[in-house]
Specification:
alpha+beta, 52% helix, 3-stranded antiparallel β-sheet, elongated, PH-domain like, 4-stranded antiparallel β-sheet, single chain, 7 strands
Amino acid sequence: MSKEYFTKHLKEGEETIKIVRAYALSQILKIAIIIILVLLPFFLLFPLFQKGFWGVIGFLVLLAVAIAFTARTVIIWYYNAFMITNKRIIDFDQRGLFDKTVSVATYDKIQDITFNKKGVFSTLFNYGTIVIQTAGANANLEIRNVFEPEKIQDAIMEIQKDSLQNERAGKEEMSAAELIDILEQTKEKLGKERFDRFLKSQNINSLPKEEKNEPEGDQEK
């Protein structure tokens, strides 16, 4: 198993912050079934081998079933995850070995983040379900049996806040740069004198100028 399965979905400039999966103790029933299936062929080893060839076949079949069920359970658990990045949340919904759905929610589309704990074991071992409500027709994102869901909720909300602030700051910087570019183009079309008169009529002294560092030798002179 490799993280490349998840990271190949990242875009340029996107970084993985956390990958969230179901809490191991929430899978205790499946773990118990795996233990029973693995131990069963060895528990029946001698009675099966006494039956000769077909007994050996029976032992191998039971062992193969145990291995197959274990592998399927581990693969589905591993690949069924939330990936939290600095730009969005990617939900990998692995329902079977050949049944996968990938859903995405950018932080500007997230409207609400909730979690719930249901039942004695969920409350006792502190795991629950996180639901992310998104705007528009997109389906909500959900991951079940997450350990300490309140901490995951707080982390997502904090990342969302930072992401939206950075996005707004970037738009403001871009708008200022575009305004200066438009004024420069206007200056070229009107000419310096007419443009200066326009600035004075608008109570604007001059365009922002870039500071130029003079050579040390010229400053001494």
